[in-house]
Amino acid sequence: GENVEQHPSTLSVQEGDSAVIKCTYSDSASNYFPWYKQELGKRPQLIIDIRSNVGEKKDQRIAVTLNKTAKHFSLHITETQPEDSAVYFCAASRGSNYKLTFGKGTLLTVNP
Amino acid sequence: KAGVTQTPRYLIKTRGQQVTLSCSPISGHRSVSWYQQTPGQGLQFLFEYFSETQRNKGNFPGRFSGRQFSNSRSEMNVSTLELGDSALYLCASRAGTGGPGELFFGEGSRLTVL
Question: Which of A38, A67, A104, B106 could pair with B42 in a Cys bridge, judged by C-beta atoms 3.0 to 4.6 Å apart?
Answer without folding.
Answer: A104
